Amino acid sequence: MAATRSLNYFNFNAAAAKDATLEKQSPVRALPSSWYSSQAMYEMERRAIFSRRWLFITHSSRVKNAGDWVRYNVAGYDFIITKDRTGGINTFHNVCRHRAFSVIEEGSSGNSKILACRYHGWSYGMNGKLAKAPGYQNLEMDKDQNGLFPIHTHIDRNGFIWINMDAKETPEVSFDEHFENVDIQKRYTDSNINFDEYELEYTYDLEGAYNWKILADNFNECYHCPTTHTDVPTFLNLETFDSDLKGGHIQHYCEPTEDQVKLGNYTHSTYYFPVSSMVAARHFMMIQKFLPSSPTSCQMSYEIYRKKGSSDEDFRRIADVYERVMSEDKTLCELAQKNLVSGVFVNGQLHPKFEKGPLFFQNNVRQMITEHYEKEKKEGKEIWPAKHTPTENASISNQDEEICRDIECGTGGQKEVLAW
């Protein structure tokens, strides 16, 4: 009941989020500015969204060979994706099981025979199993219980890698609950897109001084395109832009201009809640991630792929445009964030058609935050789904945790803030 009251307060009916509300012929109030700057809200997002939901990360071609690894950080969760000797693709928290040091300290990708912690010399195989713990040979410790913390990993039919950091043996949120058949899009088939034919060309990052949700809002509408992206109308007919809202993702549609039709160029854009998007074209593919680092900062992370055999001219024609567009978006988001934290603006009224993408995104955020907030309120404590529970000698850990909870040293004052 409380969750319903919260949603109604924001003038949004959860049950009708996808259809009726978005079709109303009146503006809809956006999330308030406090949701884009609050430290407490950011920590709640870490608990309610980033550690519970399936995240679209990259393509499996990033880890082609045994020993390959790639590293990412989403909202303070540092993790690595590896390929082991059997060909298995795994994901682990970048945390040594001994004293929490990082097993990979530098770099975003590489190839290693073993993952070694520089602090005390503990080492792990690419399958996450503990290989060596110096000095522990004669101690009663179960090596099988001290491998790297695993993260649920799903490879879809197109070879893309998804993760879920829920520490439970089976994630509370199933993949199909939000992303069933996300990898079957008729437009890919119609355009003869085979993602195995694309190879990573380069990666780059942009640091943004804004909340991650601003970038998600921005990506999911093209209402701003005619006035801020002069390149876009040269290859897309913006009058045809529309968004199809599909559970946990949004498929954006826009017809190419006549010149691009003659060249056989097309662009298919998809947003994957919460922090990822992909643009697939004849000669080019881009994976974009909005990686939060604080309530008012995030990293725009880009992986740029070229279709095998595409010429430099064909590839650069679209790659250059998207680099300019992403840079322009960065400027837009930074300027908007400055006013969101100025103490003047609360929220605006969004267009139910032209901005139905941001409304859909914001309602997903609102629902997940409200649901988790009510759950924490009921239990009287913060719930961190990604936290792994010790197995050996756990009684000592539980006693220590209980003491800490009693003096609230682990809540950072959140209990008072959330009025538990």
Automatic annotation (TrEMBL):
What are its GO biological-process terms? Answer: glycine betaine biosynthetic process from choline
Catalytic activity entry: choline + 2 reduced [2Fe-2S]-[ferredoxin] + O2 + 2 H(+) = betaine aldehyde hydrate + 2 oxidized [2Fe-2S]-[ferredoxin] + H2O
* Pathway(s) it belongs to: Amine and polyamine biosynthesis; betaine biosynthesis via choline pathway; betaine aldehyde from choline (monooxygenase route): step 1/1
EC numbers listed for it are: 1.14.15.7
Q: Name one Pfam family in it.
A: Ring_hydroxyl_A
Which GO MF term does the entry hold, naming one?
A: choline monooxygenase activity
Q: Which InterPro entries match?
A: Rieske_2Fe-2S, Rieske_2Fe-2S_sf, Ring_hydroxy_dOase_asu_C_dom, Rng_hydr_dOase-A
Q: Which residues form the Rieske domain?
A: 54-140
User: Which of UniProt's keywords are assigned here?
Assistant: 2Fe-2S, Iron, Iron-sulfur, Metal-binding, Oxidoreductase
For the keyword Ribosomal protein, the answer is no
Q: Which cofactor does it need?
A: Fe cation
User: For this UniProt entry, which residues form the secretion signal?
Assistant: none
* Keyword Isomerase on entry: no
Instruction: Describe the function of this protein.
Output: Catalyzes the first step of the osmoprotectant glycine betaine synthesis.
Q: So what family is this one in? A: Belongs to the choline monooxygenase family.
Q: What is this protein called?
A: Choline monooxygenase, chloroplastic
Q: Which organism is it from?
A: Phaeosphaeria nodorum (strain SN15 / ATCC MYA-4574 / FGSC 10173)
